[in-house]
Amino acid sequence: MASHIVGYPRMGPKRELKFALDFGVLFLMSFYIFLLQLGIETVPVLIGPVSYLLLSKPAKGVEKSFSLLSLIDKILPVYKEVIAELKAAGATWVQFDEPTLVLDLGSHQLQAFTHAYSELESTLSGLQVLVETYFADVTAEAYKTLTSLNGVSGFGFDLIRGTKSLDLIKGGFPSGKLLFAGVVDGRNIWANDLTSSLHILQALEAIVGKDKVVVSTSCSLLHTAVDLVNETKLDKELKSWLAFAAQKVLEVNALAKALVGQKDEAFFSSNATAHASRKSSPRVTNEAVQKAAAALKGSDHRRATNVSARLDAQQKKLNLPLLPTTTIGSFPQTMDLRRVRREYKAKKISEDDYVNSIKEEISKVVKIQEELDIDVLVHGEPERNDMVEYFGEQLSGFAFTVNGWVQSYGSRCVKPPIIYGDVSRPKAMTVFWSSIAQSMTKRPMKGMLTGPVTILNWSFVRNDQPRHETCYQIALAIKDEVEDLEKAGITVIQIDEAALREGLPLRKSEQAFYLDWAVHSFRITNCGVQDTTQIHTHMCYSNFNDIIHSIIDMDADVITIENSRSDEKLLSVFREGVKYGAGIGPGVYDIHSPRIPSTEEIADRINKMLAVLESNILWVNPDCGLKTRKYSEVKPALSNMVAAAKLIRTQLASAK
Ligand SMILES: *[C@@H]1O[C@H](CO)[C@@H](O)[C@H](O)[C@H]1NC(C)=O
Ligand SMILES: *[C@@H]1O[C@H](CO)[C@@H](O)[C@H](O)[C@H]1NC(C)=O
Ligand SMILES: *[C@@H]1O[C@H](CO)[C@@H](O)[C@H](O)[C@H]1NC(C)=O
Ligand SMILES: CC(=O)N[C@H]1CO[C@H](CO)[C@@H](O)[C@@H]1O
């Protein structure tokens, strides 16, 4: 075996956990045998036993101190059974994914690997065994443990992310074993630099021996788009820079052949031409943007006045009641709305008709909110398809695929934009609609933007400059938008950073650097506004207690948080004494469910929050946008929410 695709297609490691040992084995066996009967021999892939436990969550009610690793001897017999079945079916190889080997593991956890593979050794005999790692490089300790495992014939490394693994291999590799070199990026969409990869492979071969290097993708191809072949909207030049899964398979094969002296010169030279064209293309480089982003480095960006003084200035202007009510941004996206957008895109309806339909929808949403007596309104985002695509389509440096879907989780898929060049904003993106919406009401209308970190994380990002540089460029574009909104009279602007927590690197050593540039990028977007302009941000996944100080450092005036599914967790951080002076709106009800919460229930939630947060900083809002809900659910739920806020306001006033 000289080339290898890391388990394609299949479920991601976390998903796999749920299935692996029950349904998964069944699937695995039936797929394996099905393909074998067709005469195609595949490598069956199993999540490795230690990663299986380390990535599992204890069931509810299990004591915190319980170590999942203590279950290892319970699950190894199941692994043995599966391995025996695979052997009986005729398998010659088996792959164990142990992605947790790229985490910061302690010696106890590392010992679990040694123990598990020693236990499996006799069952594995007669099989070729590959242990794969991916998504980052491995530490020196993990490398030592991994390469000393018993019964293993090959080790796989992600050589795209991080450089440590490469150095470790250069420092020594067990003789006679195979090295699965992940030189083709499984998580991005860029064409491989074949010449440079070949050099790396040749250098590795010089260390580990002839015929001991297997060319591989850096991880499963689950994380990239499927095939470039049907991408009709991307131009020829841009397409020549890209490789989706189907193209990556060709790259892996071309590299493997080249390594044994059968280099396809035409393939290599055409890819070299593509690389050269990408490097020198004026579509990629925008001098002015490069300069502006470079000027940000090393300097700090913060609003001049501290948050408590700003909140005072804002309150003078906004004159909001205690426990102000608001929603996160989107209102239900009806079939009609989707049809209008689709027809406009397909040029089936005129611009005038489109604008009028959207205006009508905004007017409806504004009226509903006024009738409900919500304090800070939103326009409902009827013109937007998606939080990132909407902005990407209006920024330069972005491209969009027609079929570039990637599985996000379960049956949910996303179609990330491709950032291929320096990012700039040719013209205002949201001012038109926000101004129209504001003109329909006397109440404050929130301007709604997606933050730079989220745009970055939900896109396929350039690999020819560091992520943070791309992020700074997006931040500057959003900054222009924030300032244009302010000029247009929008006094509350929400900049969503739903993905801030999601982008956190796996390894602790890299987390501080990430948080630093991510938080800095957010501050850049709004450092230029007046004290009286109120900046909100919204975040998903309340599990960010570990980064609470970074969140405070974002210096937003108000933060709303998806919370209602894990109330206690979020509030505990404040109970433990973290000082939070800005406004905060932990979601008071879960919009992911059609259930309509009662007034009492919401009031109870607000009271729980008031036990740990000051009443003058607490906001009342649902936990997320309402786009996936129906009006028949949204209206009564918001009505109860406003009633609950009013109830507690009265109680607070009479308690004085
Ligand atoms: C590409 O389009 C052709 C023709 O419509 C179709 O048969 C094929 O399945 C498509 N391939 C992919 C990968 O979508
Ligand atoms: C914030 O700034 C105001 C005036 O600018 C000052 O009086 C106040 O002490 C500052 N508060 C904090 C917590 O630094
Ligand atoms: C965001 O970034 C993280 C870390 O790189 C990654 O695990 C996650 O899949 C990304 N999200 C999306 C939607 O690409
Ligand atoms: C990703 C990429 O550019 N692949 C190209 C490499 O060269 C061969 C041969 O010309 C093309 O077929 C690939 O599309």
Give the end-to-end Cα distance, rounded to a whole number of Å.
77 Å
* Residue windows where pLDDT falls under 50 for at least 5 positions: 7-20
What's the CATH architecture of the largest domain?
A: Alpha-Beta Barrel
Oligomer: single chain
Q: Which CATH class of the largest domain?
A: Alpha Beta
CATH fold type of the largest domain: TIM Barrel
**Unique bound compounds:** 2-acetamido-2-deoxy-beta-D-glucopyranose
- Which percent range describes the beta-strand content? 5-15%
Overall pLDDT: 91
The coarse silhouette is globular
Structural class: alpha/beta
Family: Belongs to the vitamin-B12 independent methionine synthase family.
Keywords: Amino-acid biosynthesis, Membrane, Metal-binding, Methionine biosynthesis, Methyltransferase, Transferase, Transmembrane, Transmembrane helix, Zinc
InterPro entries: Cbl-indep_Met_Synth_N (IPR013215), Cobalamin-indep_Met_synthase (IPR006276), Met_Synth_C/arc (IPR002629), UROD/MetE-like_sf (IPR038071)
Function: Catalyzes the transfer of a methyl group from 5-methyltetrahydrofolate to homocysteine resulting in methionine formation.
Observed structural traits:
23 helices; globular; TIM Barrel; 656 residues; 16 strands; 45% helix; five-stranded parallel sheet; binds 2-acetamido-2-deoxy-beta-D-glucopyranose; single chain; 2 domains; seven-stranded parallel sheet; alpha/beta
